[in-house]
Write a structure and sequence with these properties.
This protein is α/β, with parallel strands linked by helices and 437 residues long. It is 35% helix and 15% strand. A five-stranded parallel β-sheet has the order 9-8-7-15-14. A four-stranded parallel β-sheet has the order 2-1-3-4. It has a four-stranded mixed β-sheet with strand order 10-11-13-12. α1 links the parallel β1 and β2.
Length: 437
């Protein structure tokens, strides 16, 4: 037996979305929802009611108002700790839980707070420090998955015959190719400009290294692809590569998409891993560029492109995701903060994007990541050892709920050069930890 009947006095897109997320996706149960009280009362088997009062002897969850509302208004949220869990939207004493997990979950996974007025950072992004999770110290916990486990325990207590499918922890490495090479394939003008910049800074080491690379006396420091493929083979990894193919600009400085060797690199990596588009910084202000960039990658690898991750993690709700949907992108990997590790949407499993403005669930699948190399080094300014400890704690939390641990790394991070000295080992240690039993 793995089917549950849920009654609520009013079926809405919001509460239907959340019950599907918790019961079907996170708990693996069959779900039937109804607003017909007589049908619910007459039914046998596991039953859940969601409202102000229980109907009979079913498992009852007190409902707060958020998932019955439409529109976006400022929420009066009071976070408290219950049995080690950070929760909000407190409920009445008759409820199975002292908080409403469906309203809590909806607030986080819909990114409700990102629709409300807020100050954006220097790159026009929602800052992690403005989030409810950061301000109340639960950003490092996949609380939505934890709440699903609390619901599961209550269901087991009430209906011990319920069968839950076994879910296993999974590691999903992803790699962004913002700048395929440090010195190679840059063309005459960019190469001369690179020399001039290094000389003005009296960076003779950069001059020396650039010259040796261009003369073929050493490998380009960003050319870490053979090493990545070796790791992939050693640990049976299934990475996803995201390629920046936008036109050159202040924040988009990859090699030209017409460059033969860059195109060969993309084809080579696509033989061993899945690939996706890395929409440029510039495409956020000109969505037509997104279609061009998708077309460039499709032309190179000769296959449809359905996965993406925003360059600079540029997310604006709901416009960014609407633009992706309009161009047949069905999976996005941008859900994470630039300046803090953890769980931006409070969850460590894929889920569908809910468009709050249109009040509907969409087919765009969001794949959240938990840690990015630049976050640990450049934003949080952690040492390699501190960074590994921080990520290890995230892995522990994800393994507890059998979720998906996704990382965002870059090819240059694995160079073990300059500001990334020692970070190659961090990546190896993270992989070892994620792949250990």
């Amino acid at each position: 037996m793995n089917s549950v009947l849920v009654y609520t006095h009013k079926l809405t897109n919001r509460n239907s979305y959340m019950f599907r997320l918790f019961f079907r996706e996170l708990l693996g149960l069959d779900l039937v929802m109804t607003d017909r009280i007589n049908d619910f009362a007459a039914a046998t088997g596991p039953k859940v009611s969601y409202g102000e009062e229980p109907i009979a002897d079913e498992l009852f969850f007190y409902a707060r108002s958020l998932v019955f509302e439409t529109g976006i208004v400022e929420q009066n949220i009071s976070v408290f700790t219950w049995e080690g869990n950070e929760v909000f939207y407190a409920t009445g004493k008759n409820s199975a839980l002292p908080f409403d997990p469906f309203c809590c979950g909806f607030y986080l996974v819909s990114r409700y707070e990102e629709y409300l007025p807020h100050i954006r950072d220097s790159n026009d992004r929602f800052d992690a420090h403005n989030s409810l999770a950061y301000q109340h110290n639960f950003l490092s916990k996949p609380v939505v998955n934890q709440w699903a486990e609390l619901i599961r325990k209550k269901l087991v207590e009430k209906y011990p015959a319920l069968v839950f499918p076994i879910k296993n922890f999974r590691f999903q490495p992803t790699i962004d190719i913002d700048n395929a090479y440090a010195y190679r394939e840059k063309g005459f003008m960019r190469t001369v400009g690179g020399y001039a910049k290094a000389i003005l800074k009296f960076d003779l080491e950069d001059v020396r290294m650039r010259t040796r690379v261009l003369l073929g006396l050493r490998n380009d420091p960003y050319d870490t692809y053979a090493y990545q493929l070796a790791l992939q083979k050693k640990y049976s990894l299934k990475p996803i590569y995201f390629f920046l193919l936008g036109d050159y600009g202040l924040n988009d400085k990859n090699i030209s998409s017409q460059n033969h060797n860059f195109r060969q690199l993309i084809c080579h990596l696509s033989d061993y891993a899945e690939v996706g588009v890395h929409p440029s910084f510039g495409s956020n202000k000109d969505p037509l560029k997104l279609q061009v960039e998708i077309g460039r990658l499709k032309n190179i690898v000769h296959r449809d492109i359905f996965q993406s991750r925003q360059h600079f993690l540029m997310l604006k709700f709901p416009s960014t995701y609407r633009n992706l949907l309009a161009r047949d992108i069905t999976a996005d990997y941008s859900m994470g903060f630039a300046n803090e590790v953890g769980f931006r949407a409070g969850i460590c499993c894929p889920f569908n994007f809910y468009d709050l403005d249109l009040e509907r669930e969409t087919t765009l699948r969001i794949h959240p990541f938990a840690a990015m190399d630049a976050t640990l080094n450049l934003y949080m300014r952690l040492t390699p050892d501190e960074a590994f400890d921080k990520v290890k704690n995230l892995i522990v939390e994800i393994k507890k709920v059998n979720g998906v641990f996704s990382t965002l790394w870059h090819n240059e991070t694995l160079s073990d050069e300059k500001q990334w000295k020692g970070w190659k080992k961090v990546y190896e240690d993270i992989i070892e930890e994620a792949c250990s039993k």
